[in-house]
Design goal:
Length: 388
């Protein structure tokens, strides 16, 4: 292949920004110390870098640095939140509420807890992918210890109303966790205003390095207890042991600093490109947008296409554009997307769906090239289907 396909799969991961790499490089070689080495210069140097990064990330969500625990990413942060809360609060109750459209990194820890005797309610979503707030409130019982609702969906991009959910949780005295892997750096997040008790973050969806993320854990009003899931050297207040990965932490902070500095202009730019692509593709007959039309991530489009086979469609597009039909983590399996199924789609329609994830490096020429190719491929597949 002489030319690499256009990358429109930014919900799976994003390319690292070169400015992030530059910030990280000295921490691999020159400033290589262990931030926990308190007796010498090399340790202090690394500790200062981690402290500064922690401040940047804490400021980005309006919490204190004491409340930020570094993890290997959002999967680990979600596991720590769900299992750590279950283990710390089971004497209060063994009921947890989450949503059918959550990422597997929420659903699988919840299913695991079911084997330990916890009761999990998986809330349905409405046709637009948003949860019904009245239903959420009705589902809370005295045994409920945690509500976990994602900020932005990784397939259909819809933004759940975190502030309203936070109010309901506060009123009913239950803890509120959100998986913000897709939202961090793209929509404003404020743990105070949204009344969040726990928030999962990751760097690689926002032009930072893979393998680093964080969990916010509230320490005041109320102080949230969490049972560690990794035991060892006692780093991160004993909540998450393991030598801190200084270069990744520095890169994470740089990525979020860049994202927030450019958030308004970048969201506007991506939304314009997204709307352009969306308009061209939705003009084709039998193509439907999945999820709420406006309450969504600026770079997201998810469509279902009647009368074409999803696998054939991806095959026809793959030399031109890198896309996926569902989430990267589940697209290896042949099951239809659980998110699209939750919207009420048949298996068949869920299979013939495409997810577009635009990003910081997507430009208008690429968008026009992709939309032309998508239109051509759909039309030729439909023609072929008529012939046979
Ligand atoms: C990508 C993603 C995750 C997993 O994050 P990692 O940092 O790759 O572990 C979890 N939840 C959502 C919504 C995601 O998009």
């Amino acid at each position: 292949m002489s030319q690499r396909p256009i990358y429109l799969d930014c919900h799976a991961t994003t390319p690292m920004d070169k400015r992030v790499l530059e910030a990280m490089l000295p921490y691999f070689t020159e400033h290589f110390g262990n931030p926990s080495s308190i007796n010498h210069f090399y340790g202090w140097e690394a500790e200062v870098a981690v402290k500064k990064a922690r401040e940047t990330i804490a400021n980005a969500i309006n919490c204190s640095t004491e409340e930020m625990i570094f993890t290997s990413g959002a999967t680990e942060a979600n596991n720590l939140a769900i299992k750590g809360i279950a283990e710390a609060y089971f004497t209060k109750g063994k009921h947890i509420i989450t949503v059918k459209t959550e990422h597997r990194a929420i659903l699988d820890p919840c299913q695991y807890l079911e084997t330990l005797g916890f009761e999990i309610t998986y809330l349905p979503v409405q046709k637009d992918g948003l949860i019904d707030l009245e239903l959420l409130e009705k589902t809370i019982i005295p045994e409920t210890i945690l509500v976990s609702v994602m900020a932005a969906n990784n397939e259909i991009g819809v933004l759940q109303p975190l502030k309203e959910i936070g109010e309901i949780c506060q009123k009913n005295d239950v803890l509120f966790h959100s998986d913000a892997a897709q939202a961090f750096g793209k929509i404003p997040l404020d743990v105070q205003a949204m009344n969040l008790h726990l928030l999962s973050l990751t760097a690689h969806k926002v032009y930072g390095p893979k393998g680093i993320g964080a969990l916010y854990i509230r320490r005041r009003d109320p102080r949230v207890n969490i049972a560690p899931q990794l035991h060892g050297g006692g780093q991160e207040k004993g909540i998450r042991s393991g030598t801190l990965y200084t270069p990744q932490i520095v890169g994470f902070a740089k990525a979020i600093e860049l994202a927030l500095a450019e958030i308004k202009t970048e969201n506007k730019r991506q939304k314009e490109l997204r709307n352009r692509l969306q308009k061209q593709i939705l003009d084709i007959e039998g193509v439907h947008l999945n999820g709420h039309p406006t309450k969504r991530l600026p770079g997201n489009i998810n469509i279902s296409i009647e009368g074409v086979d999803g696998a054939a469609l991806l095959l026809g597009l793959q030399s031109i554009v890198a896309l996926s039909s569902g989430s990267a983590c589940t697209s290896k399996t042949t099951k239809p997307s659980h998110v699209l199924k939750a919207l009420g789609h048949s298996d068949k329609l869920a299979y013939s769906s495409l997810r577009f994830g635009l990003g910081r490096f997507t430009n208008i020429e690429e968008i026009d090239q992709v939309s032309q190719q998508v239109i051509n491929t759909i039309q030729s597949l439909r023609k072929a289907a008529i012939k046979t």
